[in-house]
Amino acid sequence: MRAGILDLTGVVGYRWASAACVLLFMLAGCGGGGGGGSAARSLSPPSSALAGFCASPRPAGTVDPFTGLPYGDRAGSLDDEKSWVRSWIDDTYLWYTEVPDLDADSYPTPVEYFDVLKTPATTPSGKPKDQFHFTLDTADWAAQSQSGVELGYGFQLALLAVTPPRKVIVAFTDPGTPAATAGIARGAEILAVDGVDLVNDSTDTGIETLNNVLFPAAAGTHTFVIRDTPGSGSRSVTLTSGPITRIPVQNVQKLAAPNHAVGYLLFNDHIATSEQLLIQAINQLAGVTDLVLDLRYNGGGYLDIASELAFMIAGPGPTSGKVFERITFNDKNPFGLTPAQTITPFHSVSQGFSGPPNQALPNLGLARVFVLTGAGTCSASEAIINALRGVDVQVNLIGATSCGKPYGFLPQDNCGTTYFAIQFQGVNDKGFGDYADGFAPTCAVADDFSHALGDPAEERLAGALSYRATGTCPPASAMVLRGIAVSGPAEPQLTRQPVRENRIYRPQ
Fold first, then answer.
1. Which of 48, 182, 349, 495 has its CA 20 to 30 A from that of 417?
2. How many CA atoms does the CB half-sphere of 503 hold within 13 Å?
3. Buried b / exposed e across 81-104, counting CB within 10 Å, b at 16+?
């Protein structure tokens, strides 16, 4: 599945409400029929009895990398798969009583049917209550969640203007990737792709080319025209798409004087490989009296890794015997968990994601932390904020309001598709978890693409350092692109896979 946000007139799918609406530029929305029908809520068999009956079974013996056991697919039909989807939603979805009764026959595929099986309710601010309902090919999910591998060029794109004249820039690149090797840095603007004007083109063929190149489904070589800085000339760059291994922890450093007691780290993804990188980062930052944790582009991932990092920030004093997060399911207790199994503690030892398990974690023992946030700060990242506040660690947020996702899921494969539906809500040690509209910043500071992440002159990091020194927020700022204030949305919109905006719980 490829990423996506725009159509020709505006935003249509930013929070991944539909896996069928996934491309960057689109001509129309997605939809389907309605009314009661063949897979209505009266369906009696539990989802466990309907699982694995597939229109196209995987070869016998195909192994699930998460369990080490064969999937066990059997011959079935698309109707069987849709029946499983409906039953699984009724069994496990947090708001299953709010799901409309829709006719499965109106939807050609199980994925299209799944896309509409969610609550239509809204939050107090008016945004959809469930913005995080999506699917991934199971092989893609395994590659992304286990190793951080996805197809691309190695840059994270951000949208500053979503209608012509569009503005698409690079938020950051991962080291060692084609984008980094080509010298593409934060703030570079993409002007054209394979001869298509990204800024202004509104033709069907142009839109298709932009989608296919920016979010490739296969390896290929393509030509990009970029402008490294406003006012500079453009240059042509040839990049080859391929499997990209994300580097989730970057720019770890103790800042230079007069901020030499301050540590900084950029944390972009709670994927398995981040565990050892975070341990190394905290060891490197030993002795700092303050930490600036940059989560502005971190959409989440494994809750256990979020717990490890929260412990490594606060140490054993405030966290011993406390709850990092307690999760609540629907009234059916669909996974049969005991109360103890719904609790993620503050992990003081490694969980074995990317190194040996049960190793004592280092810690900084800080009573406060400065967290750089934005609309891309989501789910497991927000859990760090909420959990630390739940044990009275002072968390100062510098940036913009976070995405608002106190929810999560236990991903479920069926017939080669992994389904992600909201199944639980998380609360901290004090029982708080009501932030569906996001955490508001302590100091509102716009994103600054004119400086590298980790540069003390970058607006959000500078704002954190100023607030640390004076206790007052800096004056409101405009989004900055290479020294030029940018008009447009208050926050850049990230073009990233939905799996990177999640909270993945593993029962204890």
1. 495
2. 28
3. bbbbbbbbbbbbbbbbeebeebbb
Strands 234-245 and 220-227 turn out to be antiparallel
Task: Kindly report the pTM of this predicted structure.
Answer: 0.83
Residue 415 vs residues 57, 78, 383: alpha-carbon distances, Å: 6, 10, 31
CB 407 within 8 A of CB 426: yes
119-145 in b/e burial notation, b at 16+ Cβ within 10 A? beeeeeeeebbbbbbbbbebebbbbbb
Over the chain (508 residues), the average pLDDT of each successive run of 10 is 29 26 31 35 75 96 90 96 97 97 97 97 91 89 72 91 87 96 96 96 91 88 95 94 93 96 97 96 98 96 95 98 96 93 96 95 98 94 98 97 90 95 95 95 94 96 97 80 56 69 65
Domains, the chain, with CATH or none: 149-245 (2.30.42.10), 249-407+427-504 (3.90.226.10)
The answer to whether residues 298 and 378 touch, using CB atoms and an 8 Å cutoff, is yes
Residue identified by tokens 């994300």 is 246
DSSP, res 341: G
User: How many whole angstroms separate alpha carbon 168 and alpha carbon 161?
Assistant: 7
Write down the H helix ranges in 342-433: 380-390
Name residue 199's amino acid.
V
pLDDT of residue 41: 46
Cβ atoms < 10 Å from Cβ of 48:
11
Q: Answer yes or no: are the C-beta atoms of 497 and 244 closer than 8 Å.
A: no
Answer positive or negative: Cα dihedral of 81, 87, 90, 94. Answer: negative
* Structure confidence at residue 497 (pLDDT): 61
DSSP 87-105: HHHHHH-TTGGGS----GG
Identity of the amino acid at 248 = P
Alpha-carbon torsion (91, 97, 103, 106), positive or negative:
negative
